[in-house]
Amino acid sequence: LCNAIDGTGDNETKYTAAVSHQSHIGHLLPKCIGTGNYPWKSDPNSTKIVQSSHPREMHLHKLIFLPGGLLDFTELAYYVKGQRVLAGFKKGSGICCSCCKKVVSCSQFEAHAGWGSRRNPYNSIYLADGRSLHDVALEISVQRESKVTSSSVSKENDDVCAECGDGGNLVLCDGCPKAYHTECAGLARVPDGDWFCLNCQDQAGSEKKFLGRKSMRGGARPSAVSLREKLVGRCQRVVKVSSNSLGGCVICRNGDFLKTGFGARTIMLCDQCEREYHVGCMRELGLANLKELPAGEWFCSTSCKHIHNIFQALVLNGPELVHSGISMKVLEKQRMKNFQGELKLNENDLTWQLLHGRRGIPENGRILSDAAKIFAESFDPIVDESSGRDLISLMVYSRSIRDQDFRGMYCAVLKCKETVVSAAIIRVFGCQFAEMPLVATSSASRGQGYFQILLLSIEQLLGMLGVESIILPAAEGAEAIWTNKFGFSKMENNQLLSFRSQVQMMIFQGSSMMLKAIPRLPDVPFSSLKGKL
User: Fold this and answer.
1) In terms of DSSP bridges, do strands 469-474 and 433-441 run parallel, antiparallel, or are they unpaired?
2) CA dist., res. 68 & res. 70, Å (int)
3) 241: which DSSP letter?
4) What average pLDDT does the structure give for the chain?
């Protein structure tokens, strides 16, 4: 929790829910611990992350095995929660599996790894350099298109944004193949003239060696201070893959699974709470009697399905007015601090919004970019060792890489007069608890009660859904603030171990895990959800 986020002084130490600037390198190294991976499926009207039947996706992935695609004997591995489950290598039109020494399809390779229920092979099979098969297919597609469309241009630009991973209208870098949405690059509009991404600017310095290439849309260096520029000169903490075991079925606590076919030892993964279940264990307890892998999403309970549906509805409905009972309480506190007794705001100026990725909507991209900038000025970078990517950006955009999966995370933002002033990352593990690993308020908006409004709005939503508690990692020295100001208490070790044994949650070394019970709310405080509960 950042300093002055809700009234603390400017000279006080910066507190974060995860990492503080003043902490020593490696002091708060995040570890994703536990079990359960989240094969998130996006809105039916948008491109799914899971293996898609969309003609373009099917054609794209076929490029891997066509002449000129991935070389034979390229080492591959199936990853779950940052750990290699099954190894193999590319051979001909498939993958030579290490468990059976046979050449199988990507879907069969996923099934041999024991995770056929994920139906997400191309985003779960990785090369040794950290690229997924989907990433390789995109690169092959770009290379092929560049050869066909122009012989005068040495490299064609990517067709997805290098920041958020979505397609759409992109500004193309004149120095490398990268492309960006204007909002993801910190641009107010498509600039005139040549434009270079920050990586190229960092490499070139004051030299202008890249000015020979012409962009399809052109551009100039953005005047706004970008996310990467804010990270320059600040310490980075490198995230290593956790060496913890993968866990297993939450009923029998056994991690064995069926590698082929469908049976009692087949592992099912809930698309909301991320817990793992053996098909046979669920059948014995009368929880579910599955005869085959279900099509589409699967939920372990009606409550998980209910939570998923409500979150999706809020994402699609966009901004929601902050409940008057929350906003007026905080605004009255502002009035008491104001010597003139006048307020510059009213309750209609405050809205909050839940986002899950960009979803191809430019406005969502701008909001997420603003949230990423708030986190950047409040947190040290959390860098993944294998890819070099900042995990904070992945959490904001609900994306994943080989060793880290954040597709189950949502970004909640509070807006004052359409300006994002506070942001939080949340993930709900069913009715038992939700986690909030990152929270921050913009430096210009601290000390005005904005984070308290956002936190109360999140708690109101969780209470309506019947979620029992919310947990977060508090930086060393910040426990008293969370306890005295926001009503949290330090978690007991046995309770923390119980949570960690069931799901993959964010744990930061050197931090204290805090918990707050959420009272059940029978009413529906969100106008857009009336009639949907």
Assistant:
1) parallel
2) 7
3) P
4) 74
